[in-house]
Design a protein that fits this description.
By secondary structure, this protein is an alpha/beta fold. The protein has 2 domains: 6-175, NAD(P)-binding Rossmann-like Domain (Rossmann fold); 179-302, N-(1-d-carboxylethyl)-l-norvaline Dehydrogenase, domain 2 (Orthogonal Bundle). Helices cover 46% and strands 14% of the residues. It has helices spanning 13-26, 37-46, 82-88, 108-116, 156-168, 179-199, 205-208, 212-222, 224-230, 237-247, 257-264, 274-284, 289-302; strands at 6-9, 31-35, 49-50, 53-54, 59-61, 72-75, 98-101, 123-127, 132-134, 137-139, 145-149, 173-175. It has a 5-stranded parallel beta sheet with strand order 5-2-1-6-7, with helices on both faces. A 4-stranded mixed beta sheet has the order 4-3-10-9, with helices on one face. The protein has a 3-stranded mixed beta sheet with strand order 8-11-12, sandwiched between helices. It is globular, with a radius of gyration of 19 Å.
Length: 305
Amino acid sequence: MKIETVAIVGLGALGILYGHHFTKAIGKDRVRIVVNKERMARYQEQGISFNGEPCDFQYVDETEASLEPADLVILAVKGTQLDEAIETARHQVGPDTTIISVLNGISSEEVIGAAFGGEKVVHCVAQGMDALRIGNDVKSVHIGELRIGIDAPEKQDRLDAVTAFFEETALPHVVEADILHRIWAKFMLNVGVNQVLMVKEGTFRDIHKEGPNRELMIAAMREVLPIAQKEGVNLTETDLENDLAIIDRLTPRGMPSMRQDGIAKRPSEVELFSGTILKKAKKYGLPAPTNQYLYDQVQAIEATY
């Protein structure tokens, strides 16, 4: 099982980052940016760039059925667009296609597996990047890394193929022995960072320094710990400290995706974060007052759009 072709669904900040990286590494003929006709026309007319460098993408119409399925499909959309992205990817997925998701949250792999077969999914966490899309240009200082792993031993060949592809393309990555633990750790980070900076209208600088915003972020993150334990994931205070170390390395002037949503006045992924926490807290009879506060604040912000 060797990965020769990769299809990317979603041209937000991460889709552009990975599309640009792979295209420069292995050439546009092996990299497909899968879009609908309207988006294709707009992107071709307006252009896309990464750190000011034009992206020479190969665009493929989502209805194009004459191509062989891609060896690897990367879903790089917002959580609110996952169902649409699955339909966009339909013609790119065959029996031997491997799928990875760089979506936030803890549920996208399950949804993708239900659509295409769980045996095709290699779990993934995108971590440490600071990509920020402004118009049709993405600014990024840190490309971060992809943490990958499997939840079943029969997927080992797929994991090996993805690892070999990332090595071929020099994409920073780490193979995780316990990928579900890593996914929950990243989820905890996002529960704090994304929501607090959307509500407080700040940048990473505002949670780097000691004060009310950082305290609020940590309180929101800490509410994830007992829920993860109930879910069978041994998330601890050590993981929270590790998350804080990652946060403190982020570009001070950067901002997370939910803050970008707030600026653009578009629906955020709040349901993936505090929405998920509140449902699971209710299920297990656990308190989550900080996430309730953040959820209510985000709902109030979005009600003004």
